[in-house]
Amino acid sequence: MKNLILRNTPEIADAFELRTIECVDGKNTFDVFCENDKIVICGDCKISQAMGYYEYLKTYCGVNISHCGNREINVSSAPLFEGKLSKVIPQKKRAYLNYCTFGYSFAFWKWDKWEKEIDFMAMNGINMPLSVVGTEAVWYYTLRDFTYSETGAMQYLTGPGFWPWQLMTNITGYFSLTDVKYIESRLELGKKIIDREVELGMTPIQQGYTGSVPQSVTKLFKKARLRLIPSWCNFPFTYQLDPTDPLFKKFGMALLEKQRQLFGAHHYYACDPFHENAPSVKTKDYLFKVGYAIDAMYKEFDKDSVWVMQSWSLREQIVRAVPKDRLLILDIDGTKHLETDNFWGYDYILGTLNNFGDRNTLHGSIKALADNKYLTDGSENCVGTGLFMEGVMQNPLYFDLAFKMLTEDKPVNLEEWLRNYAYRRYGSREKCLVDAMLLLSESCYSENCTGRETGSVICARPATELLHTAPNDFREFRYDRKKLVQAVDLFLSAENASKDGYEFDACDFVRQVISNYAAALCDSAIHGYKTKDVRIFERSSNAFLKICDELDDLLQTRPELTLYEHLKEAGELAFTEKDKENFELNLLTQLTIWGPFTKSVNYDYAWKEWGGLIKTYYSKRWQSFFERLAFEFPKRRIFSTTTKKQHCERNEYMGNEFYKRYAEFEKKWLSTVNPEPPVEANTVEEARNLFNKYRNAMLDM
Fold first, then answer.
1. pLDDT classification of 129: cutoffs 50, 70, 90
2. Helix/strand number for the chain, H first, E second
3. Confidence check: pLDDT of 658 > 90
């Protein structure tokens, strides 16, 4: 814990004294007070002490730590105070991370970012993080033990941008690995992560086994009962050993033992049989046997093991096959316990899922957070809280409150919290900032903004009838866009905001209102085409394309919001030129096509309004679309892009000649894109200029 303080606040590290106290009725607790000119932090464990440390920094030093701006703590003095900060945490288990986060946000992270992240977890009370970095090495060395060649083992393993979906049994060998040095580097990083988590008192949730194997395993075990798993999102078939087959236990035990050798065994193992697919045998008796077999394997491997299961693809018969003290269910979005009689009495963690694909749109009901659903919705077998978003690189306001609510014992007064947040985030107590936060709470962070996000029209694959940008998102706005414009207007009027968080949010808030306005322009352009109004069509389509370029220019002032910076990060993870190209293609494909090149259904799932991505990709698609509409304008028949087949109310990827040409552009872009690097410019000035240019128009939309 001393090292955590030294890493984060070296200038004031000597001001703190650490003491260990007893927990309160089995619950974590901390006290912070001043004594003999020292700030004394008492806690029953290191995580409690870390929470006390961060609570002091927030309360008396105005600190805000975020994934989006304010990445560093800049504190040069440690004020003494009277009284005491005390807290008893009712939530015993505080879990963190979705598998998808390791693809969308963490795929290309190195130790420098992970070290900060683990400290951040501790300070926010996380004690059960999902820890799957380095599992490529577990699989690689296990397959080698089963006589697979170096090449054969690597070909089975998916690249970093999509590896989580192999762990979830959805895909195999997508952008397969080519370099053992990379696997060894992941092993080294995974060891560092788990060692640090354990050092701070966390219990890592490690990878379990659900039966995935290469199809070629039948060459080694001819009698293996191998199940062909139906295609997931049009990816090639994968294969799974029947959990009731003795080979399932043999292979699973080998993987678990290899994981123990490489990372240790920390008793909690994540495993979701038939994740987003259906079992070949659906009888209750068979599903019970599946649950029994998997639990028996874990118990033989580790007598203290606990199976961790997501609620996403839960099956009652599998659950009931496991003793109640050997299963922990993660209610990922906090709704499934309502559908299952609180998971039939099994321990569960009540979760929050606010984001899909790490899409950077302002979104989420902060009132739902502030009401503290752990107290209102949780039952006796609800043992904790968790954050299970698919990405973390957006919505810093929402996430600051979400982290706080992991350990709260009562509801939070939103107005008071927002006032405090504005000061911590921006370093100023100006009224305009507080008023802006209140308007945010009434618009993009209002009660209506729950579930899936409103998609960005800029990032949408153009269509004459546009219903969604990504699968299952919303097209309509669920808040008053003018109220958000008013909030941004107030926000940008601040004169004393001094922190990096202000610069990030100036860019991000303006990005959102400009994006909203662009959506209105796009709708107007399509309306102009359908009503054969040339003036409206030309004016709106040209304005839309112009505003896309201007928004791209603004985003280029923040490196973390540029394609260039993320491509650079992906490339730097590789040891060879071949892997550099592979990892860059991992990222680019994830952002755009996502799935199989000719028949993707997840295209644009992980869209981002980023500098360099709008100008080279999204804007180009819309430009060609408007050019096609202009070509069709003189014709009496209204041109439509709608395809015969639909998936999630979206057009088939190559469902007609129009989209086949789009696919050609998109595939070529993957191999030719060369985005411009970020620019050195004053982000706040650029944001104010762009906002002021369109302020009146946005208020009139």
1. very high
2. 26, 16
3. yes
Cα–Cα distance between 667 and 659 in angstroms, integer?
12
CA distances (Å), origin 404, targets 123, 412, 636: 10, 10, 59
Whole-Å CA distances, 602 to 65, 355, 393, 612: 33, 16, 20, 22
Query: Rounded distance, CA 446 to CA 367, Å?
Result: 7
Amino acid identity of residue 379, one-letter, is: S
Residue 470: C-alpha distances to residues 233, 453, 467, 563 (Å): 13, 9, 9, 19
d(CA 599, CA 660): 11
Residue 357 lies in a domain: yes
CATH number reported for the structural domain that contains residue 17 in this entry: 3.30.379.10
DSSP at 28: -
Give Dmax (Cα) for the chain: 86
Closest CA to 350 of 287, 407, 411, 431: 407
Q: Do 16 and 78 touch, CB atoms closer than 8 A?
A: yes
In terms of domains, do 382 and 363 share one?
Answer: yes
- Coil, strand or helix: which one is 241? strand
CA–CA dist 424, 445 (Å, integer): 19
The residue type at 117: E
| Same-domain pairing of 277 and 296 | yes
Asked if 116 and 79 sit in the same domain, the reply is no
Query: What is the sign of the dihedral through the CA atoms of 342, 345, 351 and 355?
Result: negative
Q: Are residues 12 and 124 in the same domain?
A: no
Phi, psi of 513, rounded to the nearest 5 degrees: -70, -35
**Rounded to whole angstroms, how far apart are CA atoms 698 and 701?**
5
* DSSP element (H, E) containing 268: strand 268-270
pLDDT digits over 526-561, tens only?
Answer: 999 999 999 999 999 999 999 999 999 999 999 999
Of 298, 441, 305, 310, the residue nearest 386 (C-alpha): 310
The helix/strand/coil state of 227 is strand
Read off the DSSP letter of residue 615. I
Q: Residue 282: in which H helix or E strand, if any? A: none
